[in-house]
Amino acid sequence: MIAAIDVGGTNIRCNIIGEDEKIVSSESMSSQDIGLIEAIESIISKYAVKKIGISYAGQVDDGVILSAPNIKVDEPNIQAYFLKEHGIDLYIDNDLKCAALAEYEYWECDTTMVAASVGTGFGSAIVERGKLVKGSHNLAGEIGHAPYKYSEIPCGCGNHHCIEAFCSGSALTRKIEHHRLPVGEELLQSLKEMQSDEAKTILEDFHDALSFAVGSIISFINPEIIVLGGGVIHKNPYLLEIINESVAKYALSVSREQTKIIISELEDAPIKGAALLVKYYA
Ligand SMILES: [Zn+2]
To answer: Does the predicted TM-score (pTM) go above 0.70?
Structure first.
């Protein structure tokens, strides 16, 4: 059996998957109540797990956890730990990279796919013929920190020219607070309804930075499919129209014509991708 585990800032969710690839059992626990190693050990004590795949909401490289947002990690070298202590092969990657694997399979992509996610930040993951493109330290795909234009309010990374400084949930929040704009819960919708110059500029910059990012991905990677996901995209599906209207000015036309741009419709992509980590990398 395989344990496919999704580790988020609030919950650790697990699907136990049998030899026939069907889910045998599922469980969920709060990541506030239990450390990561302890949680996984409680799962493998109940099921005859042979391999583990983990989708992790943080930075990971080569089986080692490098950042631990909101969860206790007693042993960062988690892959080596489970092999040594339990004789179990464990595969772990960042949640967006896992989601990209699941999207690649779901959309039956054959060549190159980019999964781009606009939520609090703006990230992307690249799958090339079924394998994740990782870069030297598993940081490939940080499209949000590619340079776009100068922003007075810096990006979360400290730089002033990042795409993410214009096009992300965190950038919207920072700019809205800076200009003291009276917005509702749906930030983009609120900005659309406002007449002030500041609101118009924030909205136009958001739209333009998104088209710039997608155009850059098209020209640089030449993907067969770009799948857009993340909370901001799902709450504002009109953004796909904005991209389709204006991406041409940023993308190589021949590559643009060949790229399908779609919004993700796959539920639970990260945990599905955690199982695929085992399938593709074992
Ligand atoms: Zn940045």
So the answer is: yes
